[in-house]
Amino acid sequence: MLGSTLFVDKSRDRVRPVVNLFLDELEEIDQYSWASGTLAWLYRCLGQASRAGARGVAGCLTLLQCWIYEYFPGFRPSHFEPPVVGPDEAWASRWIGQPATGSVADPSVRLAFYRRAIDSLTPADVFWTPFDQRPHLEVRRSLYTGVIRFADIGEFYDPARCLRQFGYRQMIPPPPSRPQRADRPEAPGGYVIRIPESFDAAWDALLSHMVHIDMYSQPWRTYPYETTADYLDWFVTHSHCRVLRDDGDADRLVDSAAVRFDH
């Protein structure tokens, strides 16, 4: 489970030695936050996979795939309505045994096709609150803001950047925290982010290191992707609004391919 599901790397059948350190004291296993550790490892793997020289992706891809299915119905398995899971069942089990969505016939343009599909999404194509309207009432730590960690790997977690997932209007978030060191070369092997261990103290001081959402924002009133009046202008200047280059070349390649994609 640890090496093949939660903390997957590119070695396939091997486990990172650091994982064994968490198994030395079996009576302490249930005291670790395995969920946040898995998410921190996935964040790091996605960062490495974003480099131009990357040739694959590691991490808990089960978590990533289920996240996509929950928030983007257009990418779900075709003609499938996920069942309701019981209180003792894993949420991801809703998707067990389901076939993938339709695929692109020509693998040479597959990536460009899905990039264009992402660029074509509208706010109405996103299911903003798949885990109920106020998920933080059930999982309070989901509003924690600070560092999540897997062994020596630390990543910043900031729910203020996705308030609509909690049923609130999105506001301009505060500036992100900065790591002690960050090297992100084209080769993923040199990808390094170091966060001081002093940041870890925030995990045990939840009340002072969480987004007090009721004071920070207001519930959406008209539609689930509602934002404040100044947010979209800020977003355009601080983000990449499109994945695909706007030069038409990729679009022409995709249009010439035989495509099957069922929504």
TrEMBL record:
Source species, domain of life: Eukaryota
GO biological process, one term: meristem maintenance
A family per Pfam: PMD
Domain Aminotransferase-like plant mobile: 1-235
InterPro entries linked to this entry: AminoTfrase-like_pln_mobile, MAIN-like
Name assigned to this protein: Aminotransferase-like plant mobile domain-containing protein
